[in-house]
Amino acid sequence: MIAVIIPTRDRPGPLRRSLRALADQTIADELEVIVVDDGSADRQAVVDVVGEHEFARVEFQDHRGPASARNTGVAVARSEIVCFIDDDCEPDRSWAEKMTAAVLAGGGPVAGSTIQSVSLSPLAAALELVVDAAVSADRSFAPSNNLGGPRKLFTTMPFDERYPAAAGEDRDWCARVAAAGYDLRIEPQAKLIHRSEPTVRAFLAQQIRYGRGSFHFRRRGAERRPLERPSFYLRLIRRGFADGLATGTLISAAQLATAVGFMLEWAARPRPASR
Hints:
Layout: E1 2-8, H1 12-23, E2 31-38, H2 43-50, E3 56-61, H3 66-76, E4 81-85, E5 89-91, H4 95-106, E6 110-115, H5 122-137, E7 146-150, H6 151-156, H7 169-179, E8 185-194, H8 200-219, H9 230-242, H10 245-268
Parallel strand pairs: 1-2, 1-4, 2-3, 6-8
Antiparallel strand pairs: 4-7, 5-8, 6-7
Helix pairs in contact: 1-2, 5-9, 5-10, 8-10, 9-10
């Protein structure tokens, strides 16, 4: 059996589409699907959606964030192979089969291939550029919406639950796993679509969360991870404008929003007591 863990909160519609895609997998009869509800306002809606599929079950927790939800799923999984997707992701029919084969072949963490959206809107293009830039800047990083590996790896190296939002916790996990000597294997045939169509306001709020998560990742604890060089951000903005004025403007605004989030978290950090 292969465990597929899906954190969710207040999104029964996308969750239904995600579960239907899992029901259509080539190895659907080998899947153990665990939906972890992270404090939805309407728990019954989640129960109803999950109840449409015999291979799925739901675990409930108070709202503690996706890092905690993934750890909860790992703790109750019975399978030796664990994969993660988000509730707004729809895997290709062979996704689970390809991820499982890659995990068995390498024995370590595996990342699939994520298509950010089928939409051609400037927002979708901007979101895809932001994610692609993060991955290209750090080859040991992969978003947690298309990630897998042996269950033992996730029990010995759980996600850091001090990241309360969906921002930075996957980068932190990948960095710790790389430091422990694991190589992240990329399986390009393990494809899924991330159907995220945010409004401009939601998109910028997401970038602020990324900035907050970046502060924790780069400045918390004894280790100080450096920021990317200015040329990295300039290249990203140029790529945005190469896709059009609207996309370039959104990318520029996203970088400002990320900086705002970083500074907000810096301002909120605990300070030593004055003598």
